[in-house]
């Protein structure tokens, strides 16, 4: 597989294979998602062959949302996870740092006749919600775009009630021999071309692929969740770890 770029220094963070000043990342990631918002779900289908829908179904089954629960879906702009969560009767707050993504999600909800979701602009690192407010916190394919991941994990822990649960769906590094090389070639050579064809934006999709390569492996990220205060942390790999569901509980 392609070797990742060197580890960022304490004063920098990764932006794809670049290392940039930490204070620049939020704005640059915001630019990426503003650019891709309108075609985001189409590109997810193209890049994953539609498999992202199955991954998200499985993810929400693991969360087990229940009627009356308060659930925060962080980085949930387009509503894919929130729509699934809301089907249980849970009260879902959809939070995203990017207003363009939220706008897409609200339009999709209106077309589907899905009412009752709360849509709010929020930064995962500095949430505006009170302590011990939510029963569950979900984040799907969003944590790797956060500038300070440990800070976001601590915020997730803060806003959860005792007994609350944290669930994260994210790309990782597959452990299947040979498959990683095939996927690596596909993602670096084909995905930017799909981005150009379907969204007119190869560079944003190049960043999204590179950001996956820079994300911590499954065990390291599991450790980061524990360091944020969660217990009974688990990881459930799919496709050998190409995608993984991480979870933890607050006590």
UniProtKB/TrEMBL annotation:
<keyword id="KW-0474">Menaquinone biosynthesis</keyword>
<feature type="binding site">
    <location>
        <position position="96"/>
    </location>
    <ligand>
        <name>S-adenosyl-L-methionine</name>
    </ligand>
</feature>
<comment type="similarity">
    <text>Belongs to the class I-like SAM-binding methyltransferase superfamily. MenG/UbiE family.</text>
</comment>
<comment type="pathway">
    <text>Quinol/quinone metabolism; menaquinone biosynthesis; menaquinol from 1,4-dihydroxy-2-naphthoate: step 2/2.</text>
</comment>
<keyword id="KW-0489">Methyltransferase</keyword>
<dbReference type="InterPro" id="IPR029063">
    <property type="entry name" value="SAM-dependent_MTases_sf"/>
</dbReference>
<feature type="binding site">
    <location>
        <position position="78"/>
    </location>
    <ligand>
        <name>S-adenosyl-L-methionine</name>
    </ligand>
</feature>
<feature type="binding site">
    <location>
        <begin position="123"/>
        <end position="124"/>
    </location>
    <ligand>
        <name>S-adenosyl-L-methionine</name>
    </ligand>
</feature>
<comment type="pathway">
    <text>Cofactor biosynthesis; ubiquinone biosynthesis.</text>
</comment>
<protein>
    <recommendedName>
        <fullName>Ubiquinone/menaquinone biosynthesis C-methyltransferase UbiE</fullName>
        <ecNumber>2.1.1.163</ecNumber>
        <ecNumber>2.1.1.201</ecNumber>
    </recommendedName>
</protein>
<keyword id="KW-0831">Ubiquinone biosynthesis</keyword>
<dbReference type="Pfam" id="PF01209">
    <property type="entry name" value="Ubie_methyltran"/>
</dbReference>
<dbReference type="GO" id="GO:0008168">
    <property type="term" value="F:methyltransferase activity"/>
</dbReference>
<keyword id="KW-0808">Transferase</keyword>
<dbReference type="GO" id="GO:0032259">
    <property type="term" value="P:methylation"/>
</dbReference>
<dbReference type="InterPro" id="IPR004033">
    <property type="entry name" value="UbiE/COQ5_MeTrFase"/>
</dbReference>
<keyword id="KW-0949">S-adenosyl-L-methionine</keyword>
<comment type="function">
    <text>Methyltransferase required for the conversion of demethylmenaquinol (DMKH2) to menaquinol (MKH2) and the conversion of 2-polyprenyl-6-methoxy-1,4-benzoquinol (DDMQH2) to 2-polyprenyl-3-methyl-6-methoxy-1,4-benzoquinol (DMQH2).</text>
</comment>
<dbReference type="InterPro" id="IPR023576">
    <property type="entry name" value="UbiE/COQ5_MeTrFase_CS"/>
</dbReference>
